[in-house]
Amino acid sequence: FYPDVLIRSMNDIDLLVRPLDVDRLCDFLEGRGFRFLMSEGTPRWGLTSSSSFHPLVSSDGGLIFDLHVAPDDYPVSRGLSVDDVFGRARTIIVDGVAVSIPCDDDLVLLAITNAARDKFDPAALRSLVDLVTALVRGGIRPDWGAVTARASKGGFLRPLRVAARLLARLGVTP
């Protein structure tokens, strides 16, 4: 959605993985020199949240993957499951490689839940800028009725309302 990759710097790449595929993916990445970034003696799972592993870092430190077995921390999984995200995902081509990304509705939900997790503090700004950029520049067109229904089911309707008000104040009509 950004015109230049340098405008939106990333610390890592989040990968959503079905729980049954985690061990196989970890073995694959570790076999190619990736290592978990964690304190010695800690397990690779569960210290950062209930839905993700410690970051996997390439041997040169240039690439970091965050593996997630849920789209976001609880209670988001009540309204947005791994199977939901994979079932509605779309494929884009990046440098000749097919990559599955969440559908427009799920992109909106994840940006909002990330901002809400940060309690809409300054750290949440990146998620909100991503959301505005996706809506305005990226031309994504979420089904706001479906987004609202998932937010209600997942127990994060209030953050959706906060985000909608912020968008309206920024002149972005949800």
Task: Summarize the entry for a quick read.
The protein is α+β, with helices and mostly antiparallel strands and 174 residues long. It is built from 7 helices and 6 strands.
Description:
- With 174 residues, the chain is an alpha+beta fold.
- It has 7 helices and 6 strands; from the N terminus they run βαβββααββαααα.
- It has helices at residues 22-30, 76-79, 82-88, 104-117, 125-136, 144-154, 157-169, and strands spanning 13-16, 35-36, 56-57, 64-68, 90-94, 97-101.
- A 4-stranded mixed sheet has the order 1-4-3-2, covered by helices on one side. A two-stranded antiparallel sheet has the order 5-6.
- Strand 5 (90-94) and strand 6 (97-101) form a beta hairpin.
- Helix 4 (104-117) packs antiparallel against helix 5 and helix 4 (104-117) packs across helix 6 (144-154).
- The radius of gyration is 17 Å and the shape is globular.
- The mean pLDDT is 84.
Chart the SSEs and their pairings.
Layout: E1 13-16, H1 22-30, E2 35-36, E3 56-57, E4 64-68, H2 76-79, H3 82-88, E5 90-94, E6 97-101, H4 104-117, H5 125-136, H6 144-154, H7 157-169
Parallel strand pairs: 1-4
Antiparallel strand pairs: 2-3, 3-4, 5-6
